[in-house]
Amino acid sequence: MKKTNFAFFLIMAGLITVASGCVTRTINIESTPSNASVYLDDKYIGESPVSVPFTHYGTRKITVEKKDEDGRLVLKRAINFEKIKPPLYEVFPFDFISEILYPGKLEDKHDFHYQLDELDLPSIAERKKQILLNAEDLRRKALELD
Predict the structure, then answer these.
(1) What would the pLDDT profile of 42-66 be if each residue is shown by its tens digit?
(2) CA distances from 51 to 29, 46, 48, 71, 123 (A)
(3) In 3D, which of 42, 61, 49 has the Cα closest to residue 111?
(4) Domain residues for 86?
(5) How many angstroms separate the CA atoms of 81 and 60, rounded?
(6) Total structural domains in the chain?
(7) Is the sign of the CA dihedral 121, 124, 128, 129 positive or negative?
(8) Burial 77-112 (b: 16+ CB within 10 A, else e)
């Protein structure tokens, strides 16, 4: 009798393993303009549009920036904290069914699009004026210390 229970257990374990489902989770990030550098949780993942698999749900930091060949920002950097919520079939106890028992494949896609705006750079004359003001302020503080 015990051998029959053990054989039944082995058969059931084999069936569950062979027939187990699969959930594919991806984050898709696009930007306007495209070919911007994308960072997920401060790790570089590629240029937009980019798709990356993930395992855990929660809040993720997504940074999108466009730089020129000298490494200077061309457009405003977009930094967003996105809350990635699980679908119902990924919430306990339903996740057991979708991950183990369901024989098909499920896809959980999260799409984000970011518009990168123009930088508001001051003119060269305004930058020079600000540098001179900062220098004068620093000189004044240095004289006060004496």
Answers:
(1) 999 999 999 999 999 999 999 999 9
(2) 6, 9, 8, 24, 38
(3) 49
(4) 2-145
(5) 6
(6) 1
(7) negative
(8) bbeeeeeeebeeebeeeeeeebeeebeeeeebebeb
